[in-house]
C-alpha cells in the first residue's frame, strides 16, 4: 500500500479520552477511532493487526483439531432462561445488552456462547462415536460494561475467539483442556508477548477449574502472584500460599481487658504488646442470594490477614442452595457507609467478638434474616488468641475455641494471599507480584450447561450421559492492544514482527529526487512480491515527518532510499532497537526475509 | 479434515422450517442450524464457504485500492439523528434493532454504516490531497425483518461486505462507482454464478443512481426485465420501456354515456367497443409524509398500464419538501378495505374522473388535508379518451386535456414496465422476464450523507466542499445460499469449485480393507499438501452412505479407493456431471490440480 493513497491520519497530541499508553498510541498512530462509549472503529492498520492475531489463533486452534464455525450474536432469551443465566446477565450484573424485536420477543447480544453451542450439541451430538468435538469462532462480542475504558481493553464491543469442547467424561475433558492450554501458550508465544498462565477464579461462567493468560504490563488491571521457580502463578483473586507463622501468644489465661481506642489491629497489638498473628479478626458482610434472601455474614480471620472477597463469594455460592438459590447477587463490603449504619444499631465496631451477640443478630432480622459464620483456616487452630469483647473499648485475651467461643463449623479458605508469602509447593519460594492484562481464560466447565440444557450422548452401554464441556476464550482485540501496552517507547509503538500491520516501510526521503523514487518503487514491488508486506511512504512530506510516522506506527523495518544510494545501498532501521545498517540494494529482500523468518519462528 | 472427527450430521428429511430448495439443502447437508427466527449458526462447512466468498470479495476490493477496516455494530443514535434516519429505521420501517444501555442511551444495531463512516470521514478527511478513499468491511449486520424466511436469504443477522467511497466531486465519484461495478462483476464471475447487473431503485439509502446484482434463480424474490441483446436489464421496480402504441380512438366528440356495470377496464372497453389504450384510468392513493401531513393522491394512467408504486413513491418523495418533510412514511394502496371506506364517502369507484370532484376532496380534508394529482407520460398526449364521469355507471368519451379536463401539471413516469414491452434503446428488442436474488447493490450517494453530517474537505482553492460518496454492498451469506439455489440436483448441492467448502473428498468404501485405507490416507495427505483442500471419509459407514453424503454436501470431486486399486487406479467422480473416470494413483494430484485451476480461472 502507498501511504499517499491510504487513509492514515496521525496525531501529535495525546487524545483526551485516553488514560494508558497503548490507548493513546493506538489513537495517535491512526489505528482506532472512538465512535461511542466503549465502541471503536478499527481503521485499516488496526484491522491488519487483528487479522494477523486472528490467523495465529486460527492456526493454533486448527492444530488441535478444533473446527471453526460462526454462531449468532442475537441470542433468544429462552436459551439463557434454560441455563438460568438470563436474569443474572441482563439484570443482576446487567452485562448483557438485551432488546425487544418487532414480535415483542426478548433477545440478548452475545457476550459468550455456552447456551447457543450447548443447544447445538444437544441436537447434533447423539453418540459416543461422535466424541470428542471442539468448535470455535472468532467474533465480535458485546458487554454493557459499567465503566468502559482503556480503549480496546475494556470495550463494549470487542473481538473474541471462543471455543467449546465436548467430551464423554471428565478425564477426556481434561485432555481437551490440556490441548487448549498448550494452544494458548503457542498463541501468546507466537504473538511475541511476555505472559503468564495463572490459576484463576471461574466467576459467572462456572465450572471446576480455570486458568487465565495474563500479558504482563504495568497498566494491567489484574494482580498476579507467582514464584520465581515458574511452578506457581495465580490471579490474586484465586492465589493460595502459606500464611506467616504464628508467634507464641503472650496470654495464657482468658481475661477481658479494657483496651480503649483500639479499633484497628495495629492499635490493639500495640496496646496489648502482642503480634497480629495472635488476633482473631471478625469481619461483617451482607450477602443477597438470587432467591431474594439476605444474610449477615461473619468471617473470622487472623489479625495479620485480609479477606479475599472473590473467595468469600465462591464459598457463599456453595451455600446458596440452602437459601433456595443458585448464586449470590451482591456481597456488600462493609464500607464506611455500612459501618455507620451498623454502628447506629449499637454494634461495637472494632470490638466485635467471634460470638456475635444474639441481640445484634436479632436486631438485623428485618434486613438480614439469615446469619452465616465462616472461619478462615488461619484461625482454625489458633490458641490463646486475642479478639473483640463485643463491647466498645474492650478485648478478650487468652481465648480458645471450644472454651470461650464455639468452634466454627465452616472452616474455609477466604484468605488473601499476598506478595512475600511462602509458596505452598515450596516454602523457600516466596510470592512475587506483577500486573497483568487478562487476554485469555480457559475453563473446565464439566456438565453445568449440558445438564441445564439436556445435552446428552449415548455411551457404548446405551446410557444417556451429559456431555463434559470446556470453554476457552481469547480477547483478540484486547490482545492486540496489550501487545502495545507491553512494547512501546517515547516515539511510538513497537510491534512484534508476527502481528505488525506491515513488516516494512520503504521511505522516500525526497519524492522530488527521481533516483530515490525509482529505487524505492523497485524495492517496494520486489519486497511485496517476495511476501514481505511493505508500505511505500511516497507522500509529499518532509523526511522527518515520514520517519516520525513510521516510528509512531511501529513498523518493524524501515528502508530508506537516501544518501546511501550513491554506494548502491539503502539504510535499514530496526524499529525496536533503532539499530541502523546499510544494506546493498540487491540484498534488501533476502535480508528482510531472513530477519522476518527469525523473528516469527 | 477426517469426517470421523468432524461434527457433520446430515438429515434424510427436509426440515419443516424450509420452503425453498437451497434452504432445505443447507440444513439437510449440515451447513446451517436455526437458532431463532431469522438467526442461524454457520456450522464448519458453511463457515468455509463463507470464508471462500469473503476472500474473493476481499481480493477484488483490494484490487480497486479499497482498504479493509471494521466498524462498530453498536451505533449511537446521535449519528442516525444527524442523518435524519433514526426514526425511519427504528420506528416507521422498524428494520433497525435498537436498545437502551445501562446509562439509558439509545443504540442501534447496524443494518448499514453510512452514518458511522461519514462521521469518520468528517474527522479524518480534510484535504483534496487525501482523495479518493474507499473503505470496506466484511461484517455481520442486523435487520429486524417483518418476515424472516428462506434461511440465509432473508435473515435477521447476516454477513455483508459494505464499502464506501469518498471523492472530490460527482465525476470522480462516478469513476469510483465504475471501479466497484467492475469489481462486483468479477466477484460474481469468480464465484461461478449466473447473474445480471440491473438498474435499480435506490430506496431508503438514497442517492442519484444505483445498480443491483441479481443471481438468477426461480426462487428469487425480485423480477428482472431485460433484453436479449444484453444492453438493458432492470429491476421491475425501476424498469422503463416503450408502452404499446395507442389505437385510434373511436370517439370523435365529447359525450357522457351511461355504462352500467363497467367498474373494470375490461368491462368498459367491451361495453364501449374501444381499446384500453383509449382510456385514462384514475387511481387513488393515500400518502403520509414524515412531517405528518397526509395527502390524497390521484394518478392518471393509460387504461392498459399499471402503476409502479416504487416509482410513484419516488415521485412523491421529490415533493416532500412542499409538505415540510424529507420522505414519505407510507403509501396506502387502495385495497378492498380502503375502497370500501371511500365508497362509503360517496366516491363512485370505477367511475372516477380526472377532475376528482371538489365535494369528494373536501370530504377527505379531515383525513387527507392535501391533494396531489400526477399524470403518467402515457396519458399526457392522449386524445379523445374515455374516462370516468364521476358518477356511478357513467363514463365520458371523446374527452381531451385542456377541453373537458385541466391539463395535468405534473407529468411523470410511474408506469410499470412489463414483459413484452419494447425496449427504449431499440424497439426491435422486447423485454424478457427472469427471477433474481439480489445479492449486491451499488449506489451513487452523492452528498446526501456528507451534507447531513458535515463531512467536507478543502479543495485546492481553499473552499469547503461536501464529499461525494458512493456505497456498495454484497450480501456474503445470501450470495452463498443463492449459489445453492442456482446449482443443485435431486441428490444435493453442486458447489462451484471456487466456493466449495473443500475441493475433494477421498472416500474409503470399506474401512476394514487395509489396502483401501492405505491408498486413501496417502492420497489424502498428498492432496492437502498440494493445496487441494481434501476431506477423508474414514467413517465406519457403508459406501452407499458415504457416496450419498458426498453428493448431498456437494464436494466437486470424489476420489474412491475402491475396486480400481487392483489396477493401480482410483475412481474420480465429478459432482456436477457425475462423470466418472479411473485415474492412475500417481496422477490424482496433478489431475485434480488441473481441474481446479481450470474451474477457478
From TrEMBL, chains A, B:
<dbReference type="GO" id="GO:0004827">
    <property type="term" value="F:proline-tRNA ligase activity"/>
</dbReference>
<comment type="function">
    <text>Catalyzes the attachment of proline to tRNA(Pro) in a two-step reaction: proline is first activated by ATP to form Pro-AMP and then transferred to the acceptor end of tRNA(Pro). As ProRS can inadvertently accommodate and process non-cognate amino acids such as alanine and cysteine, to avoid such errors it has two additional distinct editing activities against alanine. One activity is designated as 'pretransfer' editing and involves the tRNA(Pro)-independent hydrolysis of activated Ala-AMP.</text>
</comment>
<dbReference type="GO" id="GO:0002161">
    <property type="term" value="F:aminoacyl-tRNA deacylase activity"/>
</dbReference>
<comment type="similarity">
    <text>Belongs to the class-II aminoacyl-tRNA synthetase family. ProS type 1 subfamily.</text>
</comment>
<dbReference type="InterPro" id="IPR002316">
    <property type="entry name" value="Pro-tRNA-ligase_IIa"/>
</dbReference>
<keyword id="KW-0436">Ligase</keyword>
<dbReference type="InterPro" id="IPR050062">
    <property type="entry name" value="Pro-tRNA_synthetase"/>
</dbReference>
<dbReference type="InterPro" id="IPR001387">
    <property type="entry name" value="Cro/C1-type_HTH"/>
</dbReference>
<dbReference type="InterPro" id="IPR036621">
    <property type="entry name" value="Anticodon-bd_dom_sf"/>
</dbReference>
<comment type="subunit">
    <text>Homodimer.</text>
</comment>
<keyword id="KW-0963">Cytoplasm</keyword>
<dbReference type="InterPro" id="IPR044140">
    <property type="entry name" value="ProRS_anticodon_short"/>
</dbReference>
<dbReference type="Pfam" id="PF03129">
    <property type="entry name" value="HGTP_anticodon"/>
</dbReference>
<keyword id="KW-0547">Nucleotide-binding</keyword>
<dbReference type="InterPro" id="IPR007214">
    <property type="entry name" value="YbaK/aa-tRNA-synth-assoc-dom"/>
</dbReference>
<dbReference type="GO" id="GO:0005829">
    <property type="term" value="C:cytosol"/>
</dbReference>
<feature type="domain" description="HTH cro/C1-type">
    <location>
        <begin position="254"/>
        <end position="279"/>
    </location>
</feature>
<dbReference type="GO" id="GO:0006433">
    <property type="term" value="P:prolyl-tRNA aminoacylation"/>
</dbReference>
<feature type="domain" description="Aminoacyl-transfer RNA synthetases class-II family profile">
    <location>
        <begin position="33"/>
        <end position="509"/>
    </location>
</feature>
<dbReference type="InterPro" id="IPR002314">
    <property type="entry name" value="aa-tRNA-synt_IIb"/>
</dbReference>
<dbReference type="InterPro" id="IPR045864">
    <property type="entry name" value="aa-tRNA-synth_II/BPL/LPL"/>
</dbReference>
<dbReference type="GO" id="GO:0005524">
    <property type="term" value="F:ATP binding"/>
</dbReference>
<keyword id="KW-0648">Protein biosynthesis</keyword>
<dbReference type="InterPro" id="IPR004500">
    <property type="entry name" value="Pro-tRNA-synth_IIa_bac-type"/>
</dbReference>
<keyword id="KW-0030">Aminoacyl-tRNA synthetase</keyword>
<dbReference type="Pfam" id="PF00587">
    <property type="entry name" value="tRNA-synt_2b"/>
</dbReference>
<protein>
    <recommendedName>
        <fullName>Proline--tRNA ligase</fullName>
        <ecNumber>6.1.1.15</ecNumber>
    </recommendedName>
</protein>
<dbReference type="InterPro" id="IPR033730">
    <property type="entry name" value="ProRS_core_prok"/>
</dbReference>
<dbReference type="InterPro" id="IPR036754">
    <property type="entry name" value="YbaK/aa-tRNA-synt-asso_dom_sf"/>
</dbReference>
<dbReference type="Pfam" id="PF04073">
    <property type="entry name" value="tRNA_edit"/>
</dbReference>
<keyword id="KW-0067">ATP-binding</keyword>
<dbReference type="InterPro" id="IPR023717">
    <property type="entry name" value="Pro-tRNA-Synthase_IIa_type1"/>
</dbReference>
<dbReference type="InterPro" id="IPR006195">
    <property type="entry name" value="aa-tRNA-synth_II"/>
</dbReference>
<dbReference type="InterPro" id="IPR004154">
    <property type="entry name" value="Anticodon-bd"/>
</dbReference>
Amino acid at each position: 500500500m502507498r501511504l499517499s493513497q491510504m487513509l492514515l491520519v496521525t496525531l501529535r497530541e495525546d487524545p483526551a479520552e485516553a488514560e494508558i499508553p497503548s490507548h493513546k498510541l493506538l489513537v495517535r498512530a491512526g489505528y482506532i477511532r472512538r465512535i461511542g462509549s466503549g465502541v471503536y472503529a478499527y481503521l485499516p492498520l488496526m484491522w491488519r493487526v487483528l487479522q494477523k492475531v486472528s490467523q495465529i489463533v486460527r492456526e493454533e486452534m486448527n492444530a488441535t483439531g478444533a473446527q471453526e464455525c460462526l454462531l449468532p450474536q442475537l441470542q433468544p432469551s429462552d436459551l439463557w432462561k434454560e441455563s438460568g443465566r438470563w436474569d443474572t446477565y441482563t439484570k443482576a450484573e446487567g452485562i448483557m445488552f438485551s432488546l425487544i424485536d418487532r414480535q415483542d420477543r426478548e433477545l440478548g447480544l452475545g457476550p459468550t456462547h455456552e447456551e447457543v453451542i450447548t443447544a447445538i450439541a444437544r441436537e447434533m451430538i447423539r453418540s459416543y462415536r461422535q466424541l470428542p468435538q471442539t468448535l470455535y469462532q472468532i467474533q465480535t462480542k458485546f458487554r454493557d460494561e459499567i465503566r468502559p475504558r482503556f480503549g480496546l481493553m475494556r470495550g463494549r464491543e470487542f473481538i473474541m475467539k471462543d471455543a467449546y469442547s465436548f467430551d464423554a467424561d471428565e478425564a477426556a475433558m481434561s485432555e481437551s483442556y490440556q490441548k487448549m492450554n498448550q494452544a494458548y501458550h503457542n498463541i501468546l508465544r507466537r504473538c511475541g508477548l511476555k505472559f503468564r498462565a495463572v490459576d484463576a477464579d471461574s466467576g459467572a461462567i462456572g465450572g471446576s477449574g480455570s486458568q487465565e493468560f495474563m500479558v504482563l504490563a504495568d497498566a494491567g488491571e489484574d494482580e498476579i502472584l507467582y514464584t520465581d521457580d515458574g511452578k506457581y502463578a495465580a490471579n490474586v483473586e484465586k492465589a493460595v500460599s502459606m500464611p506467616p507463622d504464628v508467634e507464641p501468644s503472650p496470654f495464657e489465661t482468658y481475661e477481658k481487658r479494657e483496651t480503649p481506642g483500639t479499633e484497628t489491629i495495629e492499635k490493639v497489638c500495640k496496646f496489648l504488646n502482642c503480634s497480629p498473628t495472635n488476633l482473631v479478626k471478625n469481619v461483617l458482610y451482607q450477602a443477597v442470594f438470587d432467591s431474594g434472601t439476605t444474610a449477615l455474614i461473619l468471617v473470622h480471620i487472623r489479625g495479620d490477614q485480609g479477606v479475599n472477597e472473590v473467595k468469600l463469594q465462591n464459598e457463599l455460592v456453595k451455600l446458596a442452595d440452602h437459601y433456595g438459590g443458585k448464586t449470590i447477587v451482591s456481597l456488600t463490603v462493609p464500607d464506611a457507609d455500612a459501618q455507620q449504619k451498623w454502628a447506629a444499631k449499637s454494634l461495637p465496631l472494632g470490638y466485635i467478638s467471634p460470638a456475635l451477640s444474639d441481640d445484634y443478630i436479632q436486631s438485623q432480622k428485618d434486613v438480614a434474616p439469615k446469619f452465616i459464620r465462616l472461619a478462615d483456616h488461619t484461625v482454625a487452630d489458633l490458641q490463646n488468641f486475642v479478639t473483640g469483647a463485643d463491647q466498645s473499648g474492650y478485648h478478650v485475651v487468652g481465648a480458645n475455641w471450644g472454651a470461650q467461643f464455639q468452634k466454627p463449623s465452616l472452616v474455609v479458605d477466604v484468605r488473601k494471599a499476598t506478595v512475600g508469602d511462602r509458596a505452598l509447593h515450596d516454602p523457600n519460594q516466596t510470592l512475587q507480584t506483577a500486573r497483568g492484562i487478562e487476554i485469555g481464560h480457559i475453563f473446565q466447565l464439566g456438565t453445568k450447561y449440558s445438564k441445564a440444557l439436556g445435552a446428552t450422548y449415548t455411551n457404548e452401554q446405551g446410557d444417556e450421559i451429559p456431555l463434559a464441556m470446556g470453554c476457552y476464550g481469547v480477547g483478540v482485540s484486547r490482545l492486540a492492544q496489550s501487545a502495545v501496552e507491553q512494547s512501546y517507547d517515547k516515539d511510538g509503538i513497537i510491534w512484534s514482527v508476527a502481528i505488525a500491520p506491515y513488516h516494512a516501510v520503504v521511505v522516500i526521503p525526497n519524492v522530488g529526487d527521481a533516483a530515490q523514487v525509482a529505487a524505492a518503487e523497485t524495492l517496494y514491488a520486489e519486497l511485496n512480491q517476495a511476501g514481505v508486506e511493505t508500505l511505500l511512504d511516497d507522500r509529499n512530506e518532509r523526511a522527518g515527518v515520514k520517519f516520525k510516522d513510521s516510528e509512531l506506527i511501529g513498523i518493524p523495518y524501515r528502508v530508506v532510499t537516501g544518501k546511501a544510494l550513491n554506494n548502491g545501498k539503502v539504510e535499514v532501521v530496526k524499529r525496536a532497537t533503532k539499530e541502523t545498517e546499510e544494506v546493498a540494494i540487491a540484498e534488501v529482500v533476502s535480508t528482510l526475509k531472513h530477519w522476518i523468518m527469525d523473528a516469527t519462528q
